[in-house]
């Protein structure tokens, strides 16, 4: 490899370490894990809670529980977006 390629690889590794240390450690160990933006365990739990609250609100005719279930379902849907972290970041200053 040439010198510029080595520098780009080192910069890429540093970026991985800064953005997702767990992923970088797993890559070094040779057993890669999913990058942070594709880990959706919390989103599935939020969706399960939202559905449970929504169903409870339907069976116990309670508008507040139904509304809460719908709001939680919306929040869970947002958690499934893999690019939500990038949308919050500011563009770098030049």
UniProtKB/TrEMBL annotation:
Pfam families: DUF3040
Domain of life: Bacteria
Membrane-spanning ranges: 41-58, 64-80
Record keywords: Membrane, Transmembrane, Transmembrane helix
InterPro entries on file: DUF3040 (IPR021401)
Protein name from the UniProt record: DUF3040 domain-containing protein
């Amino acid at each position: 490899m040439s010198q510029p390629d080595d520098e780009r690889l080192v910069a890429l590794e540093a970026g991985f370490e800064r953005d997702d240390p767990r992923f970088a450690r797993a890559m070094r160990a040779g057993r890669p894990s999913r990058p942070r933006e594709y880990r959706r365990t919390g989103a599935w739990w939020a969706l399960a809670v939202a559905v449970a609250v929504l169903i409870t609100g339907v069976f116990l005719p309670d508008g507040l529980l139904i509304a809460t279930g719908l709001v939680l379902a919306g929040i869970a849907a947002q958690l499934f977006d893999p690019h939500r972290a990038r949308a919050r970041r500011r563009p770098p200053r030049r």
